[in-house]
TrEMBL record:
SUPFAM superfamilies: OmpA-like (SSF103088). The keyword Kinase does not apply. It is found in: Cell membrane. This is Flagellar motor protein MotB. It comes from Noviherbaspirillum denitrificans. InterPro entries: Bact_OuterMem_StrucFunc, MotB-like_N_dom, OmpA-like, OmpA-like_sf. Residues 106-136 form a coiled coil. Keywords: Cell membrane, Cell projection, Cilium, Coiled coil, Flagellum, Membrane, Transmembrane, Transmembrane helix. The keyword Cell membrane applies. Residues 164-284 form the OmpA-like domain. It is a single-pass membrane protein.
Length: 314
């Protein structure tokens, strides 16, 4: 029993070698490190090659991304395109350079010219309304006065491109003037006096022209002809308009056209071709008439011959 108490206790220790398997955790750590270094060097390269304006745009985007996306700006790219910005020139400091060779089309607007055109249109509308009102007033005066209403068929009133045109035409048995003369019939004078009163209601200038039919004057072209007769009749009408109260300064032009401008081109001898035409001119026609030579007035047969002789000499 004593021997059993002295028996030695043996402890076995196992020492493992250092060359055993350690697993793959180090590989994952190394891959993360390499990826981080690549990202770092890529960031440094981008910062070195990006223009200052683009860097400011990128910084602005990260500060207020919604504002830049909505309104665009330096570094925000072309807001009208799905593919943003870009360009060939990386040395630019501000904004982007459009890729492509198409020239940029710039639209310019002349606001002053636009305002002038609008003002001219408004003036034309106002003038047209004024002339329509004058037309209605003259027609009303003719309808309200029995002495004038009976000559309604001889009064032709219409709106033309030149303005308001009032034509007083002959009828077979009711001429405006004495036969082959520039003497107004009493009823023609009444009509012209009434028209003269109405014309002062508008600021527009007036043009008068006398017309005859194609029947030659008795003395022929060598003496007093339809040219002189038409001019004298136009001037006699001018005097009747002024007697009615029309301001003399309103008359811009008085001309005799003989049978050069027929009313009835199919029948040059129709009495309707004998007429007086009064045009209340619009602004455009007035300016054109002023440039073409102004007023031509003849008050007598002698002056008519002198005017024609002077025109032939020129």
């Amino acid at each position: 029993m004593a021997d059993e108490g002295l028996r030695p206790i043996i402890v076995k220790r196992v020492n493992k070698g250092g060359g055993g398997h350690h697993g793959g955790a180090w590989k994952i750590a190394y891959a993360d490190f390499v990826t981080a270094m690549m990202a770092f060097f890529l960031l440094m390269w981008l910062m070195g090659s990006t223009a200052k304006g683009d860097l400011q745009g990128i910084a602005e985007y990260f500060k207020t991304p919604l504002k830049v996306a909505m309104s665009g700006g330096s570094g925000a790219g072309d807001s009208s395109s799905v593919v943003q910005g870009g360009g060939k020139d990386l040395t630019r400091k501000d904004g982007q350079v459009k890729k492509g060779d198409d020239p940029e089309i710039k639209k310019t607007y002349n606001l002053q010219a636009a305002h002038l055109q609008q003002a001219e249109k408004e003036l034309e509308k106002a003038e047209a309304a004024r002339l329509r009102g004058l037309k209605a007033k003259i027609e009303e005066a003719i309808e309200s006065r029995p002495a004038l209403k009976q000559f309604k068929k001889q009064l032709l009133i219409d709106i033309t491109t030149e303005g308001l045109r009032i034509q007083i035409v002959d009828e077979q048995n009711r001429p405006m003037f004495a036969l082959a003369k520039a003497e107004l019939q009493p009823y023609t004078r009444d009509i012209l006096v009434e028209i003269g009163r109405a014309l002062n209601d508008v600021p527009n200038r007036v043009s008068l022209s006398g017309h005859t039919d194609a029947t030659p004057y008795a003395s022929g072209e060598k003496g007093y002809s339809n040219w002189e007769l038409s001019a004298d009749r136009a001037n006699a009408s001018r005097r009747a308009l002024i007697a009615g109260g029309m301001d003399e300064a309103k008359v811009l032009r008085v001309v005799g056209l003989s049978s050069a401008v027929l009313f009835d081109k199919q029948d040059p001898f129709n009495p309707i071709n004998r007429r007086i035409s009064i045009i209340v001119m619009n602004k455009k026609t007035e300016e054109s008439a002023s440039k073409d030579g102004g007023t031509v007035e003849v008050s007598s047969e002698t002056q008519a011959r002198q005017e024609l002789a002077g025109a032939a000499a020129r």
